[in-house]
């Protein structure tokens, strides 16, 4: 018989194996301050208790082994692949600084023959977000409408990525297709259009130029929120070298930003040097048409970082091509004055604005205000 005592009360049950194993253990454990004893041989209870202890220990060891193995697996793989290097405190961050290039991106909206047939002297490439139709229309009716300048033909193309992540067979937006049929100036590739992918956008631009515009002399990359004086641009490149030429607002000895809160932060793991090689700021730069192929070749050896103008500069350094400063200061402006007079606008080639909408205002000033006193 089994006797359980709760204060002065005594509960008596048949001391069977069934009660002991199934009911007795549950009853005794659930009653907290119960004092239970069973009238059975002591060695049998001790052996049964040892079985439970061993079982719980085995389960505990198994759980600990699974948890600890999953914790160490990524570190083990990393050590196998990087057994000659030490772990960097920025290792978990480095992936965000690099972009997927070189990679075989495809054009889903293209103008495959237009540039070759027109044979423009200068091709202007304008990277723009696919949803920003307003910026494209503003440029088309302002400086992008200057197609014959100083006797030279100028053509313009808008370069877009995809507005969302999708598979390779995702059809382009119907509105973009309609816009392409109407204007014939849309190029859309299948990479995701985002700030972090601007380097991809630039390299895709160079790929297109190197295969579609073999008969052109120069090309320019310019941001969609920038005023462009096409007349001054053509006047400058008419006297520029035909090969190995790139100019713009050239940054020399620019310091690498190590502040993690900066928009252009790069860790020392990604770029160890304290300063960058010379590069042309992305607001607008001009280059001879032999450079796209040379930069693309260099890109096979230079890992692509997300800061697009810096990456082009790294490729230029690897290709052994020095950048050229403009003929004089003030042609490419990143920090314009608060008030832009007609004289100022007639003196620059490219000046950054607050937004693409501001192009309408400065274009009106440039075209209507007298410049005779400049």
Quick summary:
It is an enzyme of class 2 (transferase). The chain contains eleven helices and 14 strands.
Supply the key terms:
single chain; 374 residues; alpha/beta; Spore Coat Polysaccharide Biosynthesis Protein SpsA, Chain A; 8-stranded mixed beta sheet; 3-stranded antiparallel beta sheet; 14 strands; elongated; disordered N terminus; glycosyltransferase; signal-anchor; transferase; Hexosyltransferase
Walk me through the structure.
The strands form three sheets. Strands 4, 5, 6, 7, 8, 9, 11 and 12 form an eight-stranded mixed β-sheet that branches. Strands 2-1-3 form a three-stranded antiparallel β-sheet, covered by helices on one side. The chain has a single domain, classed as Spore Coat Polysaccharide Biosynthesis Protein SpsA, Chain A (Alpha-Beta Complex), CATH 3.90.550.50. The protein is α/β, with parallel strands linked by helices and 374 residues long. The chain is built from eleven helices and 14 strands. The radius of gyration is 35 Å and the shape is elongated. Helix 6 crosses helix 8 (291-299), helix 6 (198-212) packs across helix 9 and helix 8 crosses helix 9 (308-319). A hairpin with a 2-residue loop joins strand 1 (2-6) and strand 2 (9-13). Helices cover 37% and strands 19% of the residues.
Topology overview:
Layout: E1 2-6, E2 9-13, H1 17-30, E3 35-38, H2 42-81, E4 107-109, H3 114-118, E5 122-127, H4 133-140, E6 148-149, E7 152-162, H5 174-183, E8 186-192, H6 198-212, E9 218-222, E10 226-228, H7 230-237, E11 246-251, E12 279-288, H8 291-299, H9 308-319, E13 332-333, H10 342-347, E14 350-352, H11 358-368
Parallel strand pairs: 5-7, 5-9, 7-8, 13-14
Antiparallel strand pairs: 1-2, 1-3, 4-8, 6-7, 9-12, 10-14, 11-12
Helix pairs in contact: 6-8, 6-9, 8-9
């Amino acid at each position: 018989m089994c006797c359980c005592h709760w204060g002065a009360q005594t509960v008596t049950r048949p001391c069977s194996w069934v009660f002991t194993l199934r009911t007795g253990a549950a009853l005794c454990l659930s009653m907290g301050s119960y004092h239970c004893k069973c009238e059975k041989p002591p060695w049998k209870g001790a052996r049964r208790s040892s079985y439970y202890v061993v079982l719980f220990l085995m389960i505990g060891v198994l759980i600990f082994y699974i948890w600890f193995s999953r914790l160490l697996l990524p570190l083990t793989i990393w050590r196998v692949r990087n057994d000659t290097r030490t772990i960097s405190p920025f290792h978990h961050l480095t992936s965000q600084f690099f972009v997927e290039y070189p990679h075989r991106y495809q054009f889903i909206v293209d103008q495959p023959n237009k540039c070759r047939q027109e044979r423009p002297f200068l091709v202007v490439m304008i990277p723009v977000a696919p949803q920003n139709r307003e910026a494209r229309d503003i440029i088309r009716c302002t400086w992008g409408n200057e197609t014959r300048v100083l006797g030279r033909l100028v053509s313009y193309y808008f370069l877009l990525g995809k507005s969302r992540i999708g598979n390779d067979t995702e059809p382009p937006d119907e509105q973009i297709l309609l816009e392409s049929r109407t204007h014939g100036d849309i190029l859309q590739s299948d990479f995701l259009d985002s700030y972090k992918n601007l380097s991809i956008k630039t390299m895709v631009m160079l790929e297109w130029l190197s295969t579609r515009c073999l008969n052109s002399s120069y090309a320019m990359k310019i941001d969609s929120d920038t005023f462009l004086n096409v007349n001054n641009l053509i006047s400058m490149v008419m006297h520029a070298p035909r090969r190995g030429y790139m100019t713009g607002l050239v940054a020399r000895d620019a310091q690498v930003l190590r502040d993690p809160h900066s928009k252009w932060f790069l860790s020392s793991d990604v770029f160890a040097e304290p300063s960058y090689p010379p590069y042309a700021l992305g607001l607008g730069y001009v280059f001879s048409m032999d450079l796209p192929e040379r930069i693309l070749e260099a890109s096979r050896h230079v890992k692509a970082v997300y800061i697009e103008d810096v990456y082009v500069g790294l490729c230029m350094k690897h290709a052994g091509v020095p950048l050229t400063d403009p003929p004089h200061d003030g042609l490419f402006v990143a920090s314009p004055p608060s008030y832009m007079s007609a004289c100022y606008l007639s003196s620059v080639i490219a000046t950054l604005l607050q937004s693409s909408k501001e192009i309408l205002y400065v274009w009106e000033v440039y075209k209507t205000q007298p410049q005779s006193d400049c």
